[in-house]
Amino acid sequence: MVITRILGKQIVVSAKNYPVVFITGPRQSGKTTLSKQTFAKYYYQNLENPEIRLTAQTDPKNFLSQSNNMIIDEIQRVPDLISYIQSIVDENPDKKYVITGSQNILISKKVSQSLAGRIAIFTLLPLSLKETENTRYKVKNIYNQIVKGFYPRIYDKNLNPIEWYPNYIQTYLERDIREIKNIINLMDFQRFLKLCAGRTGQIVNLSSLADDVGVSVNTIKGWLSILEITYIIYFFPPYYRNFNKRIIKSPKLYFFDVGLVCSLLSIKNENQLKTHPLFGSIYETFCASEILKQNYNNNTHINFYHWRDKNGNEIDLLYEKNNELNTIEIKSSCTLNEDDSKNLYLFEKLTKSKVNKKLIYLSQKIKKYKDIYLQDWNSISV
After folding, report:
1. Which CATH architecture has domain 7-123?
2. What is the per-residue pLDDT across 262-273, written as a single tens digit (0 to 9) for each?
3. Mind listing the pLDDT tens digit for each residue in 307-360?
4. What angle do CA 34, 37, 38 make, to 5 degrees?
5. Which of 332, 296, 301 is nearest to 319 (CA)?
6. Among the listed residues 173, 250, 238, 177, the one whose alpha carbon sits nearest the alpha carbon of residue 207
7. Domain spans of the chain?
8. DSSP state of 247
9. Residue 320 contacts residue 303 (beta carbons within 8 Å)
């Protein structure tokens, strides 16, 4: 059974208006499947194939002239092709290219330089809840869903996530990491990756990470950048407009996929997850990632933030939409507690303006409390 990806509709529309479409995202997020399904008549070339890659490197013009409509998979393997694509589409308006890549460093270093105004860029993340909603792949238990994660291959091939994720991590370390940076001790980096999993949903503390791994703060900064450009983690920066210096200005760290977090923390089943001391942070990561997927899948370009002052008052997630400020608190419980809303009202008081307020619980039957909208894990929306 094929899972329809929401992003597909956006890509089809953009392909009519732009000569180049770039689909980026984590390895195994479904970029190849989506591009081949959406552009079934395009000539497909995968640069992971050594022979194809050699042809692209030695004779790029000939390689790119094989068809008027081409899909070029994993273009980060031969990034110089991007400059050639620019000159080709400028000279031949009928040429169409779909390129994919699993390292978003391409956007800043190559794509934005060479293809500005000629390219539509999309980020395909692992499956969202909405994409599995009306399929046989839907998981009804939140704990099982978190342990299983959202990588399409686990669903498509009915794979055991407990076996799949360690292989994914090992491949990531041996291939992606070594391609980007020559890290001498991969064991240190793997330990760093596990320590980051233990800090998901938390404000980044560079010194603490450096001390725990036994490396410098600058090394930690570099390693966090690697995780970010390879779509393992992302950050929500602090929201500090109209506030004084008492606001904490460090970003919050999240993993794109909660199944990966569980694997790195050796959480293998529902019972282990329920009783795990980090369940609250893992559940927050799940909710934040679902919100982020909606943003990317609908191509809405919303910027998300967190807020925390030095007294410990915090808001998990903030964003501006339609000139309105929205605040979200995430609670890993099923019970509405009046204290859960206090920071939402505190923030509204500090901003001196009307703020839309939302609470997300594990389970919630009522939809509104005072002027706060309530949601459960199965109905998250922005």
Report:
1. 3-Layer(aba) Sandwich (3.40)
2. 999 999 999 999
3. 998 888 999 999 999 889 999 999 999 888 888 999 999 999 988 888 999 999
4. 80
5. 301
6. 250
7. 7-123, 130-382
8. B
9. yes
